[in-house]
Amino acid sequence: MEKIFNYINGKLIAPSGGHFLENMEPATGKAYSLVPDSDELDVAQAVEAAQAAAPAWAAMTAEKRSALLMQVAGLIEKNHEKLALAESRDNGKPVKLASVVDIPRASQNLRFYATAALHDSTASHQQAQVLNYTRREPIGVAGCISPWNLPLYLFTWKIAPALASGNAVVAKPSELTPMTAFLLSELCIEAGLPAGVLNIVHGLGPKVGQAIVEHPNVPVISFTGGTKTGEHLARTAAPMFKKLSLELGGKNPNIIFADCDLEKAVHTSLQSSFANQGQICLCGSRIFVERSIYDDFKRKFLTGLASWKVGDPMEDGVKLGALVSKPHLEKVLSYVQLAKDEGGRVVFGGERVALEGRCADGYFMQPTVIEGLAYNCRTNMEEIFGPVVTLTPFYTEEEVLHMANATRYGLAATIWTENLRKAHRVAHGLKSGIVWINCWLVRDLRTPFGGVKQSGVGREGGFEALHFFTEEKNVCIQL
Ligand code: NAD
């Protein structure tokens, strides 16, 4: 079986304890590779390597750092097909999706921050006899922890600004999807990234992730994952006064007004409900439809969904691959049962899918649509993070805003209407970090990305992410 290795001090090495975990292929339900079961000793080694590399990396010109990161981006593009296949196999997502979204966005992340760092500036403040100027200094060693749903895409979204702003990095990808981060470490070696600048330690969250967060020489942590894990991390990091960025869960509303372009709303809502098996933090899992078009929307939505094929993610034409793991599939199915217990009617799907051949033991389920639930029941309040959406009718703007804002989350929201004033009004009334009007998942990397309430603390994207990995220092000169 293929072995994945840690990437520490420029070398691919086995974990110090010699233990590996089985890495499962979600589509087949079988182990297909081994991932290091690293521990705090491996993390300590990685931090030491990062500390040793940090001063020279910080002292290097931004142009030289940028050129090295662009080199890595170029190698991602050169290895696009290999990486897309690996991502699909590791995560269960359709290879087409990995090919058009995950892998291109991974190289874009690197290119964006490699060039953004060249265009950043700092302030200076003049008085008659005094000049203040601000320096932005890299913090040292940054800890970057990422989840399994968009593995290489979210991994690079963190390491790119951390590295571009002159920090060394100790990163941990999800133990469920470690393969593309491992392949990236090979590309970093090929690109000539100096040893120790990026270190990747594989393994379990409570062992490796926790050790990174606890390490006294990692003063800045960027984390994307579940709200519960984020809360735990904050408890560890806060007494150590670490800088912390948290991108957490969501339960996003998708609001369909009667005056929308219905065909477009239906088409895009299918994507925003079920892309990546509904395992995108930005998926709109609560669909609110104005009462007068509810039946029409539902009919068109279910008709469109009928053509969404569940199947082998490597196959052409498959829209829904496997869920990431057996426990996750079981969790999502348990929410379908909960919805039924809460009085919901499953109007589409709801069951596990048994495929034949190589995928017979894979973690597949039908895309699922449920109606007839109260807006504030558990199914509508808790993050399911799978191919399950609810349909809820509404009559007025005030009512839908109240229902949309009722969860403890506030990551993203979508609004469908052709009325510009209403679109702005509702967008301003939503308690959400991101609002899409008549579109979904359209990204401009310069814009602030993040959530309010329990969806997170801080913003990624743009110069904000570069600045997060620096400390400002003011220098005051008497002229
Ligand atoms: P998770 O919280 O279980 O794990 C995320 C990462 O944290 C993994 O690498 C994991 O190993 C690590 N981890 C686990 N316990 C840890 C600990 N005690 N200390 C340090 N690290 C630890 O989340 P997941 O199941 O991998 O991802 C799904 C969640 O991520 C969903 O809630 C989803 O909404 C969220 N998410 C949010 C965004 C966003 O931008 N807001 C993006 C993608 C996913």
CATH fold-level label of the largest domain: Aldehyde Dehydrogenase, Chain A, domain 1
Write down how many β-strands occur, each being a DSSP E stretch of 2 or more residues. 23
Largest sheet: 7 strands, mixed
Low-confidence stretches: none
Question: Helix proportion of residues, in percent?
Answer: 40-55%
Structure, explained:
With 479 residues, this protein is an alpha/beta fold. 40% of the residues lie in helices and 22% in strands. The strands form 6 sheets. The protein has a 7-stranded mixed beta sheet with strand order 15-18-19-14-13-20-21, with helices on both faces. Bound molecules: nicotinamide-adenine-dinucleotide. Nicotinamide-adenine-dinucleotide binds next to α7 and α8.
At a glance:
With 479 residues, this protein is an alpha/beta fold. The chain has 15 helices and 23 strands.
Feature tags:
single chain; 479 residues; alpha/beta; Aldehyde Dehydrogenase, Chain A, domain 1; Aldehyde Dehydrogenase, Chain A, domain 2; 2 domains; seven-stranded mixed β-sheet; six-stranded mixed β-sheet; 15 helices; 23 strands; 40% helix; globular; binds nicotinamide-adenine-dinucleotide
Give the helix/strand layout.
Layout: E1 2-3, E2 6-8, E3 11-13, E4 20-25, E5 30-36, H1 40-59, H2 62-78, H3 80-91, H4 95-119, E6 124-126, E7 130-138, E8 141-145, H5 151-164, E9 168-172, H6 179-191, E10 198-200, H7 205-214, E11 220-224, H8 227-237, E12 243-247, E13 253-256, H9 262-274, E14 286-290, H10 294-305, H11 326-341, E15 345-348, E16 352-353, E17 364-365, E18 368-371, H12 378-381, E19 388-394, H13 397-404, E20 412-416, H14 420-429, E21 434-437, E22 456-457, H15 462-468, E23 470-478
Parallel strand pairs: 1-5, 8-9, 8-11, 9-10, 11-12, 13-14, 13-20, 14-19, 18-19, 20-21
Antiparallel strand pairs: 2-3, 4-5, 6-7, 7-23, 12-22, 15-18, 16-17
Helix pairs in contact: 1-7, 2-4, 2-6, 3-4, 4-5, 5-15, 9-10
The structure holds nicotinamide-adenine-dinucleotide.
